[in-house]
Every structure is written in C-alpha cells, then in structure tokens.
Design a protein that fits this description.
Number of domains: 2
Order of helices and strands: EEHEHHEHEHEEHEE
CATH class of the largest domain: Alpha Beta
Strand content: 15-25%
Shape: elongated
Number of helices: 6
Radius of gyration: 20 Å
Distance between the termini: 50 Å
Number of strands: 9
Helix content: 25-40%
CATH topology of the largest domain: Glutaredoxin
Structural class: alpha/beta
C-alpha cells in the first residue's frame, strides 16, 4: 500500500530522513551543517533528461557553493546503480557529481516530500525541487513533469533572491537578477506613505531601491 504523499509547504520544516547514499549513510539534519540546501528529486538514474540536468548542475556547482548552498539528489535507485551512474556521468559526459545521490528504493522520502503524483506515474517520483534555509525550513518548492528538464539557472536565481530578501528585508521584482534594483517594502500605515519618493512609473505602494549582490 502506497504511503500518502504530502508536500511540505513553504514555511514548514522539511522532513528529516536517514538513507544510504553514494557518500555513505546520511541523515539530512546532520548533513546540512546549517547551510542552505537544494534538494532535488528525480525519477531515475541513466535517463536522458536527468543527465541533462546534472550537466547543468555541474556547470553551476561553484555558484551554489558561493551562496553557501549544498546540493543533494534523491531517486528510487539502489546505491549500486547510483554509484555506476556517477562513474558513467564522469567517464562519458565529463560531469563531476560532488554531492550525495540518495537511494530511496522504498519511496519513503518521495512520499515525505510529496514527489509522488499518481496522475503522472504510480511508481516514479516527478522532478521535484526544494530550497531549505539553514534552519531546514522550506523556502521554495516546485515540480516538473517527468519528460521535461528543470531550469537549474532558475533554481539558482530563486536561491539568490530569497537570500537577498532575507538580508535586505525587501521583496524582489519579477525577473530579478543579482545587481538589479529591488522593491521597497510597501508602507504599513498612513504615516509611512512617501508620495514624494515615487518616480515616474511608480506609486506609493510600488517603489524601487538600488540593488546589490552582484
């Protein structure tokens, strides 16, 4: 009988788990080391879409590291299959996998994280992505269809945006990139209204401020 799959929502604690990986037995809460975490769920090793995603991850590995973020990937494969795929990725595609590949053969983690979507597949998790902050709180989650690779660049962009919002205590606009202008926090009372500061194309509830974090 399949365990009910429940997606942890933004603002909730990410479920802890312990599982065998390509780097040995791992417990998420100990492994995070109070860093940011990008947790990726994918359907299987030795599949073309997953290869394309891992190639993009390898290309941006240093960027995630700069953001104090660790990557971890979960699939239903056995550890032996994951070890073989890790070697194949390096030998055939030049892809260095420098993060744990988690074996979730019983789909326990997939169900804890809401990766099982019966309408897409009864036995295979969809492509799921979660960003966890250093307190292991879910800050972002999204799902991609089995046949479509996710945008690793967008995952990195969202991580940067969340961190900037935390640091600056302001929102980020659509399509924000590091170095671009940020939004001012909307006024919370009448005395906080600042009509004079509004430039052309702005209003009291929509004003920009100089960005940073190049």
């Amino acid at each position: 009988m399949m365990i009910e799959s429940k997606t942890p929502r933004i603002g909730e604690a990410a479920p802890d788990f312990s599982s065998p990986t390509t780097e040995g037995e791992l417990r998420l809460s100990a492994w995070t080391e109070k860093k940011w975490v990008v947790l990726l769920g994918y359907p299987a090793a030795f599949t073309p879409v997953s290869v394309s995603e891992f190639k993009e991850l390898a290309d941006r590995a240093d960027k995630f590291k700069e953001r104090n973020a660790k990557i971890i990937a979960v699939s239903p494969d056995t550890v032996y299959s994951l070890l073989a795929w890790k070697r194949d990725l390096k030998e055939r595609f030049g892809v260095e996998v420098n993060f744990p590949l988690v074996s979730d053969t019983r789909l326990k983690i997939a169900n804890q994280y809401g990766m099982m979507h019966p309408g897409a597949s009864q036995h295979t998790p969809v492509r799921a992505t979660y960003i966890l902050d250093p307190k292991r709180t879910v800050r972002y989650c999204t799902f991609y269809p089995l046949a479509n690779g996710r945008s690793i660049a967008e995952i990195l962009r969202v991580l940067q945006a969340i961190q900037v919002s935390d640091d600056e205590q302001v929102p980020t606009p659509a399509e924000w990139r590091p170095g671009k202008d940020l939004l001012k926090t909307p006024p919370r009372s009448f005395k906080d209204l600042d009509f004079k500061a509004a430039k052309e194309g702005e209003d009291f509830y929509y004003q920009m401020k100089k960005g940073g974090d190049e």
